[in-house]
Structure prediction request, 342 residues.
Amino acid sequence: MVLEWFDDHGRHDLPWQHDQTAYRVWVSEIMLQQTQVSTVIPYYQRFMSSFPTVEALAAAPLDEVLHLWTGLGYYARARNLHKTAQRVVSEFDGEFPASLELLESLPGIGRSTAGAILSLALNRRGVILDGNVKRVLCRYYAISEWPGTSKTLAQLWELAEASTPEQRFGDYAQAMMDLGATLCTRSRPACLHCPLVKHCQARQQGIESQLPASKPRRSLPEKSVYMIMWQDDDGRVFLQQRQASGIWGGLWSFPECEDRDVLNQWLQDRQLQIDSIWPKVSHTFSHFRLHITPVHVTGAIDADQPGCRIADSAGSLWYHSQTQMPQVGLAAPVKKLLQQLT
Prediction:
């Protein structure tokens, strides 16, 4: 039923469905994690234009990779993408291994992504369980528990494994993803058009809109920082590169201070003055909420002079809006503030 529906109604013209190599499928699967197709498509097209092969991605500077990723979020995906490309080139001669175990050994590739690469590109039977497929299975079998628990996840994997056919497994994988993305949507599922409607247990019980169960809510911790937008007399803005690990790892951002006393000392050490303090900006991560107070500082001091280097920085540069934008990755709030500033 699913395959018949897919033949007539599935998506067949997504960018990564053309010239469907393991490299192209892998990049699309990583980009699509927690990100909608409509958002991914332009990023994917720019990414493939810059890095048409796994060798090109492996040879590229990480800054360039992060620059093309800016705005997609979850930047660990981009860092792992770069690491995996380098390993595929160095350890597998540029060919993705046709083994579930070897694929899962690569950074950022989990069981579902490995299954997608196998089934969609390498003509090997692979099982997928992305967010769309979880939603379809939870409704079809009326699974009431939150899919994020280890017990429920194991149950879903068993069902996904049992449901995946021995033939046309690639089409089946795409069909299940399409079904969740186009009909069995999070809100207002189009059950009357679904090929599984007659046997869907959630539909029979009238609880399709209540499933899958939502993740138990918890209050997010709050954190506040000052971001120092240091601008010299030529209009250039000082940026520093964050350490590779942690939030926004490897991206370029403004210097940060956690409280006003540290900020004042930072300014005093560099003989700089506050020009203005902007309204707070909030940014929500998966595990905490960050409140940013942008502080505009002006001064023509040389940032590379002894005593003026930014602590805990992997590098620094002066950004100028009137010249070519540096090909570096920017944290989303930083990009917006730069646009307002310059």
